[in-house]
Description:
Structural class: alpha/beta
Order of helices and strands: EHEHEHEHEHEEHEHHHHHHHHHHHHH
Helix content: 40-55%
Shape: elongated
Strand order of the largest sheet: 3-2-1-4-5-6-7-8
Number of helices: 19
Largest sheet: 8 strands, mixed
Number of strands: 8
Amino acid sequence: MIRTNVQPSDPMEDQPTIGIIGMGAMGTMYAKYLSEGGWKKINVCDRSDKFESLKATYQGVPGITVHRDGHAVSRISDFIMYSVEAEHIDKIVAEYGPSTKVGAIVSGQTSVKAPEKDAFDKHLPADVHIVSLHSLHGPTVSPVGQPLVIIQYRAPDECVHIVESIFHCFRSRYVYLTYEDHDLVTANVQAVTHAAFLTMGTAWASHRSYPWEQGQYVGGIETVKVNIMLRIYANKWHVYAGLAILNPSAKVQIDTYASSATDLFKLMIAGDADGLRDRVYAAREKVFGVRAHEDGGATPIFLTEDVLDQFTIGGRPASPSGTSAPWTNSHLSLLAMVDCWARLSIQPFDHLQLAATPVFRMWIGVAEYLFRSIARLDTAINAAIHDVTHRSNDLEFVVAARGWSQCVAFGSFELYRDRFEKTAEFFASRFEDANKIGGAMIKAIVASNGVAKQ
């Protein structure tokens, strides 16, 4: 049995043999940090047709041995992680699970745990342990300080301690959940957040324009919208598809978000200022605990427009008034998000402290920045009713939100992929800059004061 407090500095014979099945973006990230952390027995594999190229990639990389398939990895590894797409987890565990070494600890790095749990229950031998994982960040984000979910399912405490020791080198923050709680929390934290940014991208692509290069969406809150939208579309479609389609809670939330966007837009085009204000301020009180006549509250993640403007893509052109102030905007995507949280009784700050992703931190940060200020929120409401500058964009946004909701409801991965990749193609030329700026924004949040550090 591996010691529970095993370390990379221990003699090689005392170290666990670590196995990774699936060397996509996340599997590659795990292999990188485990190798750099000093572990000396790391076995990896991907599809058999990638064997030669994978072997060439890892030639000379300390501690990493490439195998032809999951059978070879499973039969010799003390800890095995399946880093595969949620839609394929059942098939892959069915193939390689029976080869699992007796007494090994098996884990999964899928974003949706219900299919993973079912696959492990069906296909893993009874004499192996299950301690699952999920890093709540993308492959281009450093794991340092980020939440790493640990799920103790079919294993004694000793196995959990071994997993904690293996991943100590990530310097992540451990979050302990059940399989069921994981899927609920990740739906609250990730699914509807991703849907908002996917919707923005589809709306702008349908409009056939890069509005931030035309004097719009260039400062403050807009910076987050544009950069995170681009960052999401620069990733692979399946990173988001499994979470949206296979998680029942996610489907409800994505549908509610589309419904909120639609309802608010109807109030806008009806010119119902009182109705819009009442609904927005009711959501404000329910989510942020701030009454209609109250301003401020807890310290926001982002303190000033100037902080956000450090990361602008499109420059800082003057507004229609001739000043450098940002253009007015209805911020329909944010109004709909807070309205959705209120309707579903989601308390985002609870999840912020528990298992927030970098994207969720930014999204709740700008939501808080808008909603805690009466002046900013009233400006958005006034723009929604009286300023038609963004009206066509808002229309495209509502259509796109409903389209994504319908796509998820159909449960078709191919439809999701087609919709995602067509939008991504439109923005492809902007991805490199967005990834650089997005990475800097995430570092700024981690280093900032307030809830980001909790």
